[in-house]
Automatic annotation (TrEMBL):
Keywords: Aminopeptidase, Hydrolase, Protease. PANTHER family: PROLINE IMINOPEPTIDASE. Coiled coil: none annotated. The lineage of its organism: Bacteria, Pseudomonadati, Pseudomonadota, Alphaproteobacteria, Rhodobacterales. One of its GO terms (molecular function) is aminopeptidase activity. One of its GO terms (cellular component) is cytoplasm. GO terms for biological process: proteolysis. This is Proline iminopeptidase. It comes from Jannaschia aquimarina.
Length: 167
């Protein structure tokens, strides 16, 4: 919706892919191809899409991580593997959210994230009794810098005792 030119280029790398999980399904065989050119071209197209989403933030500087073809291929393979399997959340986490009541759950989401919309975290927060939702104003997608990264570190520290089994 917000990056039609970037999405069009992304979809051109796997024309049979439909938006959403269908793109991961279409890219997966290309990324696993025995033909190095096919796999590396697919990884480049996938990572250009990733960077387009990240670069919406004018403060974001290209990290350079996608310049390395080995990293690019590994990253694209892992991401598509998780997307294709819906992160193994079957049944969906929202359907099981009440099971998390009483656990120290802190959800953190950027207000303007184009890739992971706030409405998803909001719905999950409303479904998990006792959860906390921290909305990061002005932030977009990505955790490489700034308030989103800080909030994740802060939440992890706040729950350190529970995570280490001390409470």
């Amino acid at each position: 919706m917000f990056l039609p030119e970037a999405f069009e280029a992304f979809q051109a790398g796997a024309p049979e892919g439909a938006p959403g999980v269908g793109m991961a399904e279409a890219y997966a065989p290309r990324l696993a191809s025995d033909a190095p050119r096919v796999a590396f071209d697919a990884a480049r197209a996938w990572c250009r899409w990733e960077e387009a989403v990240l670069q919406v933030d004018p403060r974001a500087e290209p990290s350079g991580r996608f310049e390395d073809p080995t990293f690019r291929l590994g990253f694209a393979r892992v991401v598509t593997h998780y997307f294709r399997h819906l992160a193994w959340l079957d049944p969906p986490l929202l359907d099981r959210a009440a099971d998390l009541a009483g656990l120290p759950v802190t959800l953190i989401n950027s207000r303007l994230d184009l890739s992971c919309p706030l409405s998803t975290a909001w719905s999950l927060h409303r479904a998990i009794p006792g959860s906390a939702l921290k909305i990061i104003p002005g932030s977009l997608h990505g955790t490489l810098y700034g308030p989103l990264a800080d909030a994740i570190v802060e939440a992890g520290g706040a729950h350190a005792d529970v995570l280490e089994g001390r409470s």
